[in-house]
Each structure stands twice: as C-alpha cells, then as structure tokens.
Write a structure and sequence with these properties.
single chain, alpha+beta, Diaminopimelate Epimerase, Chain A, domain 1, 2 domains, 5 helices, 19 strands, 20% helix, globular
Length: 311
C-alpha cells in the first residue's frame, strides 16, 4: 500500500494527515499505522494520525488516532488542520465537520499570525458525562472540586468537549507533577472509566492563560486543542476569565484564541493556526513501513517560527 500524507500542526501539536476521501484506506489497520507514523525514531514523528473522511450523509469529517493506537473522539488542534484540507472539497469558508459522531461548525478566519492559515471550530461544552464518576454537586456538575485519590488539594473542574477533561488552576505549572498526575489517573478507572485528559492552568493576565496538558494516549504534548478549549471554559465558569470575549491561551507549542459563550447553550470557539510543514509518501504492507518526504513547505515553517519568536 502506498499513500500520500501531509505533516501539519495546530499550535505546535504535530500530526500526520491523510486524505482518505481521495485515497482508499479501508484495507489499512489504522491503529497500527498510527503507532508507526507517530514514532519519532522509526516513523515520521507526530502526536497523532488524522484522516479526512466523508460520511454517507455527505458531511466531511475527521478521524484521529493517538500514538498508542487508540482513537480519540475529538481533537481541537487536529480538526483545524482537517478543516483546511476539507475546505478544498466543500468550496466554502463556512462548513460543518464531524468527529466522534458529533457535528462541529467550522470556518476559515482572517489570519491572526501574519499570513498563517487560521481556522476556528465551535465546540459544544457539557459539564458532565459518563466519563466522570466523581461525586458531583447538587447541580450535577463538578466545578472547583477536590478529587482526593488524584491529589489532596488541587481543585478540578470537569469538562466534556467530545472527550473528557479535568482542569485545575495553579500558580505555576509543574511539569513533573503533571506527569505524575497523568500516570496516577490511569489507575483510577473507578472514577475515570475511559481515562481523562489533565490540564494545569496559569492565569497570566486578564483573559490570558497558559495551559499544559497530559493527554490520555499520548502523554504530555506541546499543545492540546480540546484541553485549551476546556481550560478557557473552566476559567470562565469560575469567573477568572470573561465570557463573550477572546481569551488568549498560550502553551509550549504556541497559542490560540478561545471565545466562550452561554447564549443558546455553553460553547467555546477555538481559533488558531493550521500549518502544513511537509508532504510525502508512506509505503506499508502491514509489516514493513517506509516513508519519504517529497516537499518541505518552508514558507509556512518560517511564518510559524516568526510568530513564535515575536509572541
């Protein structure tokens, strides 16, 4: 089997993306392929595998696989990259994309980082789901509460944005602690039966936060789109950031903007880059894997580097 790929990133969150509309991937074992392409020693190196797909209803959508081969319901950084690829099919700058059985309104935005292609996705927010088994408040939500088996004093807010997140505000992000929390939560299946993404958040200025995340299936990554969405929402829920205005969300990979709204139901729009860095080809027969770069997209790499230098 031989197929084309695009390497891309959203806020430094790297992916290998395959157009499964133009290329038949039905015979490919995608979980195994994801572990291969994401391997940074023997593969291409990425935080996940993305596929642009099209459903029987005609809607274009995303499938996303983690480095451990598990499939994610949603990926905020990834869906922006998929949106850029899908835009060539839909022929409009405003369209819906699917992921994990849900529909996400998506649009191309005016560039906010020089000439870097920018996309936004509106993500509906729920404050409870079957992924959480903590004791909720009388309202049924878990906001600013302690999960003692995880940590004795950190106060968490539970957010579901297509995948489950818990968010805690800290004075300063301790990455060693974040690693410990990410490993510890794997043992708490009675509380998080499907695992959970964990974020620690610093409030750096009015409506400016810094987020670091341990992603289930991937570990600590430079950036996680749904985590930034969840973190901005959690800070708005707790009165630390404002609704209906843009919240700057920084991370080690770059930055995005989030806008939280309560009108018509809680939702947060995630706005950020969709950068293509290389194009290449993958060959795989189920056992032997090889890849080759055919084009380095230098102007986009340089534009993102300039943004990082000047932010």
């Amino acid at each position: 089997m031989k197929f084309q790929y695009i390497k891309c990133h959203g806020s430094g969150n790297e992916f290998v993306m395959i157009d499964a509309v133009a290329q038949d991937m039905t015979a490919v074992e995608l979980s195994a392929l994801s572990t291969l392409v994401c391997n940074r020693t023997e593969g291409i190196g990425a935080d996940g595998l993305l596929l642009l797909v099209r459903g029987e209803d005609g809607l274009y959508g995303m499938r996303m696989f983690n480095p451990d081969g598990s499939e994610a319901e949603m990926c905020g950084n990834g869906i922006r990259c998929v949106a850029r690829l899908a835009e060539g099919y839909v022929g409009t700058t405003n369209f819906d994309l699917t992921s994990g059985g849900k529909v996400y309104p998506t649009a191309r935005y005016a560039p906010v980082y020089g000439d870097i292609p920018t996309y936004g996705v509106q993500i509906g927010v729920r404050l409870w789901s079957d992924d959480f088994r903590m004791r909720a408040s009388e309202s049924g939500n878990f906001i600013d509460g302690i999960i003692e088996p995880l940590h004795p004093s950190l106060r968490w807010t539970a957010i579901s944005v297509g995948n489950p997140h818990i968010v805690a505000q800290v004075e300063s992000v301790d990455f060693a602690l974040l690693e410990q929390l990410g490993e510890r939560v794997k043992t708490l299946r009675d509380i998080f039966p499907n695992g959970v993404n964990i974020s620690l958040v610093e409030l750096r200025a009015k409506n400016h936060i810094f987020v670091a995340t341990y992603e289930r299936g991937a570990g600590i990554t430079p950036s996680c789109g749904t985590a930034m969405t969840s973190s901005a929402t959690a800070m708005a829920l707790r009165g630390k950031c404002d609704y209906d205005c843009e919240i700057l969300v920084s991370n080690r990979g770059g930055a995005v903007r989030c806008k939280c709204s309560r009108e018509g139901g809680l939702a947060t729009t995630l706005i950020g880059n969709a950068t293509f860095t290389e194009r290449g080809v993958i060959e795989w027969d189920g056992k032997r894997f090889a890849s080759a770069v055919e084009q380095i997209i230098g102007d986009e790499i340089e534009a993102w580097s300039d943004f990082l230098s000047n932010r």
